[in-house]
């Protein structure tokens, strides 16, 4: 440190002089008004401590020019030294854990916050405290400038306590003015925040109203679809019953043209009934599909019901339905309606979109008999990889339109996926072009268990084979 001036501490007046000298040097070095006040306050506190607790001392002022190039190394330096008994419990004082009725410790901690650099060396032979404040950019501490600063300090006259008090009052007024300005800015900011909060509250209220309207509209839509779908089913069943009776020739023979027209009518009615059933299932899932009715189910009975349900749809000219009996006695604790809905969608899709070969339904136990996999494998032509990702989306139909033997709403697989999720499981598929497809559902034996990430297909699954004519979903 290049020492520019020194003040010896013997009397109270010397503390005033030390404070004034620190502020003068800070002003000469181009520090801001606030930094000048910080330096003067720090020097005053350290000088008063040296006089009060050590009986006197010395304050040295100087500058650290660093390498003369790096501005960040240029600092105003102040060193306060005494020959007292040292500072006991320095670490506790600086940590704020020391309490003294004389106030010792608060000054040191405050000084450290005011300055950019703070260092203490203390012992039985005395104490030396060094503090520093970085200079603003653009200040060049050449030897000529340092000499000019020293001459200015030497030429400055002594400062009386009254003058220093006046200066402190001016600093206090400036601080109060800055505080008032900041309070006004804070009040303005609080008003802006208040306006913003009111706007956010109003926006939330509007969003809640909109969400309520959307929920009501969704409920009305679901109710409408449910009523319409339900009402459509009665005349469709009547059309199917009448066409079946006429095609049985119980009331007399029909011409070839009449027979063909009735078969077309029956086919169209079946397709429309399938779409109506899908829409009804969708509305049920939206309105109350998250409620589960759990009950014990015998796996053999479940498969037997499915076999009886779909057997009338099997013809000598289409794919054969093979429902494999489970290898062991298995009882599931699940929702019967949702389980049947998943399997019905898989099997009906396989029968509708496979023209020859077979549709095989099988089951197997997984993961220490805590899970069961239902598999429906067909002998269709398979599904292209780019179409497989869309299979479980609402109203999604993929495949080659020219090969479709039936039409649908595109809701069956998406509903199956929703039902499996509600039961705590998941669905998936794998398909190889010209080698058929396999759709599977992994469900817990006791619903409510999280579904594991089980790799499929497994070695226990028959290979995809027996190419058919078409497999659009």
UniProtKB/TrEMBL annotation:
Domain Histidine kinase: 227-447
Region listing for Disordered, in residue ranges: 454-473
EC code(s) of this entry: 2.7.13.3
Compositional bias (Low complexity): 454-467
Catalysed reactions listed for this entry: ATP + protein L-histidine = ADP + protein N-phospho-L-histidine
CDD domains (alphabetical): HATPase_EvgS-ArcB-TorS-like (cd16922), HisKA (cd00082)
Keyword Ubl conjugation: no
Gene Ontology MF, one: ATP binding
Domain of life, source organism: Bacteria
InterPro entries to which the protein is assigned, alphabetical: HATPase_C_sf, HATPase_dom, His_kinase_dom, HisK_dim/P_dom, HisK_dim/P_sf, Sensor_HK_Regulatory, Sig_transdc_His_kin-like_C
Keywords: ATP-binding, Coiled coil, Kinase, Nucleotide-binding, Phosphoprotein, Transferase, Two-component regulatory system
Pfam families assigned: HATPase_c, HATPase_c_2, HisKA
Family annotation (PROSITE patterns): HIS_KIN
Keyword Nucleotide-binding annotated: yes
UniProt cross-references to SMART domains, sorted A to Z: HATPase_c, HisKA
Protein's UniProt name: histidine kinase
């Amino acid at each position: 440190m290049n020492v520019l001036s020194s003040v010896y501490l013997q009397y109270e007046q010397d503390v005033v002089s030390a404070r004034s000298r620190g502020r003068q040097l800070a002003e000469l070095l181009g520090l801001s008004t606030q930094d000048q006040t910080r330096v003067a306050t720090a020097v005053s506190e350290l000088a008063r401590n040296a006089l009060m607790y050590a009986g006197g001392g010395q304050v040295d002022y100087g500058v650290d020019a660093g390498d003369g190039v790096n501005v960040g190394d240029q600092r105003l330096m102040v060193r306060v030294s005494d020959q007292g008994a040292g500072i006991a419990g320095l670490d506790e004082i600086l940590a704020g854990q020391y309490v003294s009725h004389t106030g010792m410790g608060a000054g040191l901690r405050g000084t450290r916050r005011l300055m950019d650099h703070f260092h203490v060396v203390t012992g039985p032979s005395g104490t030396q405290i060094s503090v520093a404040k970085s200079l603003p950019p653009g200040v060049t501490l050449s030897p000529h400038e340092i000499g000019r600063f020293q001459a200015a300090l030497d030429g400055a006259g002594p400062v009386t306590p009254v003058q220093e008090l006046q200066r402190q009052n001016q600093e206090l007024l400036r601080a109060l003015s800055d505080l008032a300005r900041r309070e006004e800015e804070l009040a303005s900011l609080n008003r802006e925040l208040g306006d913003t909060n009111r706007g956010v509250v109003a926006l939330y209220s509007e969003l809640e109203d909109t969400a309520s309207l959307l929920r009501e509209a969704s409920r009305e839509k679901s109710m409408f679809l449910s009523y319409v779908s339900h009402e459509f089913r009665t005349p469709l069943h009547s059309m199917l019953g009448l066409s079946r009776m006429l095609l049985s020739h119980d009331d007399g023979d029909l011409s070839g043209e009449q027979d063909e027209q009735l078969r077309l009518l029956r086919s169209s009615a079946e397709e429309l009934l399938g779409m109506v059933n899908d829409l009804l299932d969708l509305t049920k899932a939206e309105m109350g599909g998250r409620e589960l009715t759990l009950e014990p189910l015998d796996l053999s009975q479940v498969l037997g019901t499915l076999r009886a349900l779909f057997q009338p749809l099997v013809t000598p000219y289409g794919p054969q339905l093979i429902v494999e009996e489970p290898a062991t006695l298995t009882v599931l604790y699940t929702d019967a309606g949702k389980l049947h809905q998943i399997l019905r969608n898989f099997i009906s899709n396989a029968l509708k979109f496979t023209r020859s070969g077979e549709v095989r339904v099988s089951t197997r136990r997984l993961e220490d008999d805590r899970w069961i996999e239902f598999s429906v494998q067909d002998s269709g032509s398979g599904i292209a990889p780019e179409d497989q990702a869309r299979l479980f989306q609402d109203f999604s139909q993929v495949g080659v339109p020219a090969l479709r033997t039936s039409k649908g709403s595109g809701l069956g697989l998406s509903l199956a996926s929703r039902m499996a999720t509600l039961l705590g499981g998941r669905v998936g598929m794998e398909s190889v072009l010209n080698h058929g497809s396999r759709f599977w559902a992994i469900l817990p034996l006791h619903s409510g268990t999280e579904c594991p990430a089980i790799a499929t297909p497994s070695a226990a699954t028959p290979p995809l084979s027996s190419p058919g004519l078409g497999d659009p979903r």
